[in-house]
From TrEMBL, chains A, B:
Gene Ontology molecular function, alphabetical: hydrolase activity, acting on carbon-nitrogen (but not peptide) bonds, in linear amidines
Family: Belongs to the peptidase M20A family.
Hydrolase keyword on record: yes
Source lineage: Eukaryota, Fungi, Dikarya, Basidiomycota, Ustilaginomycotina
UniProt xrefs under InterPro entries: Amidase_Cbmase (IPR010158), Bact_exopeptidase_dim_dom (IPR036264), Peptidase_M20 (IPR002933), Peptidase_M20_dimer (IPR011650)
Span of domain Peptidase M20 dimerisation: 255-346
Protein name as it appears in the record: Beta-alanine synthase
Alphabetical keyword list: Hydrolase
Amino acid sequence: MLSRTLGTARTAYRHAAMPRQQANVAARWYTAGKLRIDADRMMKTLHETCEWGFAHRYGSSPFETGMARLTLDENDATARRWLADEAKKIGCSVTVDEMGNMFMVKQGKKGGAPTAMGSHLDTQPTGGRYDGILGVMAGLEALRTIKDHNVETEYPVALINWTNEEGARFPQSIVGSGVWCGDVPLQKAWNLQDVKDGSLTMKSELSKIGFLGDTKCSHKATPLAAHFELHIEQGPILEASGKKVGIVQGGQAYKWFDINVRGRECHTGSTPFDTRSDAMLCASRIIVESNRIAKEQSGLASTGILRLSPGSVNTCPGHVFFTLDVRHPSTDKLAALCKDIEAAAHRIASSESEKGCDVDWVETFNSPAITFHPDCISSVRKAVEANYGADHGVDIYSGAGHDTCSTSKVCPSSMIFITSKDGISHNPREYSSPEDCAIGAQVLMDAALLYDAQRSK
Amino acid sequence: MLSRTLGTARTAYRHAAMPRQQANVAARWYTAGKLRIDADRMMKTLHETCEWGFAHRYGSSPFETGMARLTLDENDATARRWLADEAKKIGCSVTVDEMGNMFMVKQGKKGGAPTAMGSHLDTQPTGGRYDGILGVMAGLEALRTIKDHNVETEYPVALINWTNEEGARFPQSIVGSGVWCGDVPLQKAWNLQDVKDGSLTMKSELSKIGFLGDTKCSHKATPLAAHFELHIEQGPILEASGKKVGIVQGGQAYKWFDINVRGRECHTGSTPFDTRSDAMLCASRIIVESNRIAKEQSGLASTGILRLSPGSVNTCPGHVFFTLDVRHPSTDKLAALCKDIEAAAHRIASSESEKGCDVDWVETFNSPAITFHPDCISSVRKAVEANYGADHGVDIYSGAGHDTCSTSKVCPSSMIFITSKDGISHNPREYSSPEDCAIGAQVLMDAALLYDAQRSK
């Protein structure tokens, strides 16, 4: 009684079954592929839970919508309550910390910190159905599979839903795991304001939906033995390479900046160019130049938010606020790139903007380049090789920040990427095929169980 | 009992009194300077009425604030009611038309259409105390002076307050006079939506404050014999020239455009530049290029409004909306300039923006270059020469649109400019000295009365 979706997904497994036999996996309780996730159940669950927050329909089939499930909104709250219930059904304890991070732990033969699989349920305002959501659903599917087979792991295993990975509603990304690993002060995270209504804070909204937990938000209060995360690539590299699984080695460095350009309002009709201090023209020049410099230095620079005032067709703006997101694989080269862009901005504002503008430049976020843990990377690699063969995996670096960038600071961590169609992400049309999702989920479970099997404490 | 302000203003008159004697003014009932406006009363009235909507304090003295009196808001309503009362006190009839335009008419010896002095009481959200307001206050002062001296004009004279000149709250400028002269359909103007709350329209707000009049909004229902307007220059030319009065010959041509750039949302970290369709980067390039082209062709191009979506630090915007305001002294050269900028925008979007964006380009407003009426210009010139001497006036073109651009299409019209300090306008720090305001008001009254005196019907 296989549905079409399940049939297709299962086919992928059958194709991949052969090389597993020859794989050299550790002779412990678990060998990769011993348990098989139920791809159909996972995809069904994923799409069912996307009913909470679906938006931006782009096609006629039921799943052809994006998502707008903003952190701690009503849809996020519903998805969270559902997830806690599902975890309890399969015998997990559920702990919610002060940041609303949810730790769903299934006990093993021995005690100790769990080997975790985690990601996030929140999305961008014009997000898709896979970013974060797939990682949580795959982790849930792994726990369900373990439960179905009455398998007892050596140590506890866990599923984690991290709060506000996106930073879309409360403007700081990776903040639940950031507080947990010690990067972000709790009070600062609690005080983050809803971008549309400054009267709502993360703390007030956690409380409102019943997810302001008692447990301290800290890796000391809820320690993990390891953290694995399945995620869509959100880029075009895997698709172009023809490989199925990205074995993620680490993440590129990135910094965020808030930039305020202050000029002088003036009438658009009666003010000659040479007497203007046009903040919008100045900001435009800085954006164009930041792109040119980043391209030249093999980095990235992007502006995602821009607001101006006063906002009238025939008044040159006196004030423009915008953000800049700058990235580079190397921490040192990122620092140099940011310095060059900042210098260019000041040059543009002072000497290339007619009567001149002032530029105020504040770094709001800094994530150095990250190297994932060799033991975790090795577990992922073994899971790929055993299930699908070595030539189906490719070493890759993450262009985006993820909760695993936080966990990697305090416990062994790594990630698994699967293909994003056309590299599209943070967009309703974000798409990964059911086959690719299934491959990712199988690798996630196997990596976690292989890690569990080789743990000595 | 002269106040310091009045004393200074009067000094300016005394200095200017001599050349008046030699001036060759028409031997009719009125000679320029025969009546004198009360500068102190006018400035007192101006600042008192600025209590309704003052904002953006920049200094400690009582008048060191700007204004935020948006069309039809509560402050505008209060100012309108006050103005109607003041006009009635000096014997004017008050007619309000369907657009809320206020016609305050003082009868003359004969009947017929009045010679009008008009401007507007509404301001930009970060506006000053002189743009529009001075023109209305000077017109009121002229009527008060005529009343004080029990003078009877040949034909009626009028003061007009035109509705929504600024186009800041309801985004189309010069709309009250635009409907009156037949440029703008009434229904279109009524349907204009508050930029912050689409549920409020010009019609609903006119009705709410009691200024949705019964009289048809048309130059046929409320005809004028002529229209004069005193306005601050809103630019740096007069100040640089050292002249006191701009004898305005006409207005430069301008067009407004709504531009929508559509790309594709993508993740800022994992999307290489060459696979992006970044709408914000594309819009920035268009803004920078529009400035370059306008400069090259001796025109102006400015962006006063820009909105993007979705608006998240780590998502490249998929959509940017912005406005473009393009101006040139020649109607034909403006058309060519706009064509060149539009072509550049399409070129940037299609071939210079990585994977490309779409550009949707809509003209929302078109004001051809305007030549004012020689009889009105002549009345202004005579008023300047008689009061202050020929070398205190300078022929000038208006960079901004004004209600007089509308009236000039259906009746003889012209304008008078006085100095704007540092050319600043549409800014709280907009300033014209009491002396300059007084000079402007005297020229306004004299021009209107000279015009009345030479009318044959």
